[in-house]
Write a structure and sequence with these properties.
This protein folds into two domains: 30 residues; 132 residues, no CATH class. It has three helices and five strands. A five-stranded mixed sheet has the order 2-1-3-4-5, covered by helices on one side. Helix 2 packs parallel to helix 3. The N and C termini lie far apart (47 Å).
């Protein structure tokens, strides 16, 4: 009889744990619904690694970085209806004046399997504090060229950001 009770208890815990973790994760995301002006930072993939990633020149890799950032920013802007999204023009653009929220990308790199590694900080510009993070995302990588992989991985980052900021599902 004890074994049956223990087995049932363990099964119930297995079913309840994911819901408990999900609720805990949701509770940690602050309400950002009143943050209508968003500054979307630059995803700095670092130009120094261009040879390791198969590019002949630094300029070729810089062009890929700029193209991917522009596509990422445009997609984010179209999905964030009801918000004004100002985007960084380059990696040095951090002019967040007049905005409520700063989406900052940190610890960004691409490995040889074309997997994007990235962390995101959501900064409340009124208090200048980090109010939420997406830490240490290691995206899957895909069977594609580096440029194609970056676009797919940045789409995933986009979806996570939208969920956090809007607080709703796609």
């Amino acid at each position: 009889m004890k074994r049956v009770v223990i087995a049932i208890t363990l099964l119930m815990m297995c079913f309840m744990l994911p819901r408990t973790l999900e609720a805990r994760e949701k509770a940690q995301i602050p309400d950002m619904s009143n943050m209508n002006r968003i500054f979307l930072g630059w995803v700095d993939l670092g130009v120094g690694s261009y040879k390791d990633l198969g590019y002949d020149t630094r300029e070729d890799w810089e062009s890929v970085i700029a193209t991917e950032n522009t596509g990422f920013q445009e997609y984010f802007q179209t999905k964030m209806t009801g918000h004004t999204v100002v985007v960084a023009k380059n990696k040095d653009d951090v002019n967040t004046a007049g905005n409520d929220l700063y989406v900052k990308f940190v610890d960004v790199s691409v490995d040889h399997g074309y997997r994007l590694h990235i962390s995101v900080q959501l900064i409340d510009l009124k208090t200048n504090t980090v109010i939420a993070t997406i830490p240490n995302m290691k995206l899957n990588g895909h069977f594609c060229t580096l440029k194609g992989c970056l676009a797919k991985d940045l789409d995933e980052v986009n979806e996570k950001l939208q969920l956090m900021i809007k607080g709703t599902k796609k």
